[in-house]
Design brief:
Helix content is 16%, strand content 40%. The chain has helices at residues 29-42, 77-90, 164-167, and strands at 9-15, 18-23, 46-52, 55-67, 96-102, 109-112, 125-131, 134-140, 147-152, 157-160, 168-172, 182-188.
Length: 202
């Protein structure tokens, strides 16, 4: 995969525990704005609830998901265009995309790593950002416990190697600063769905 930094890319992490590369301008601001507007209006955004600390809480963002290979649900054209751009840039055969809609600074995602049983070993995760800039925090799980911050602007792409999910967490913290809405598209290589498993993921 293309995790080697080129002229437009910045290496955020590169050690025995993984590699993270940030491309500031995968797509132009104009294209990013068009995609953002289409997705904000056309996606059937869902508010989720999650069990945490013995109680159900609202997930502080809206979400959607599309399996792209094989196609199960019709995805908006902006999603397909973004999919083609990310695959062309990375050379990775992504099969699904998870969308997150951060409505304002109160929406966030807690530090986490992907569930390893829901991604194919060896393949990276790619995050395309649209809309307002939000800061991602990347933290090493073990010593040396480095903390890195990356400002994810519209049209930027962040690619995290599979190994980073073992050794780092990543999250988008809440902010009290005035900030506009943001949509992120998280491309992953998922295992083939197994309808025989109750509640199988897509």
């Amino acid at each position: 995969m293309s995790l080697f930094a080129g002229a437009r890319e910045t290496v955020v992490v590169d050690d025995q525990r993984g590699r993270v590369v940030h491309t500031a301008d995968l797509v132009s601001p104009e294209v990013a704005r068009i995609w953002f507007d289409e997705l904000r209006e056309s996606v059937d955004w869902k508010a989720q609830r999650r069990r945490m600390y013995d109680r159900d809480v609202d997930v502080p963002r809206l979400q959607a998901h599309f399996r792209l290979v094989p196609v199960e649900d019709p995805a908006p054209e902006a999603t397909l265009a973004a999919f083609r751009a990310v695959v062309a840039a990375t050379g990775v055969p992504f099969t699904s995309v998870g969308l997150n809609f951060y409505r304002d600074g109160r929406d966030s995602v807690a530090p986490h790593n992907d569930h390893l049983d829901e991604i194919v070993s060896g393949f990276p995760i790619a995050l395309l950002s649209l809309g307002a800039t939000r800061r991602m925090t990347i933290r090493a799980k073990a010593s040396p416990k480095r903390v890195l911050h990356v400002d994810l602007a519209a049209g930027s792409l962040l690619v995290m190697s599979y190994e980073t999910q073992l050794h780092y967490t990543h999250g988008i913290p809440k902010t009290a600063e005035p900030v506009g809405p943001r949509i992120s598209l998280a491309f992953r290589v998922r295992p083939a769905p197994d309808p025989a498993k109750p509640g199988f993921y897509r």
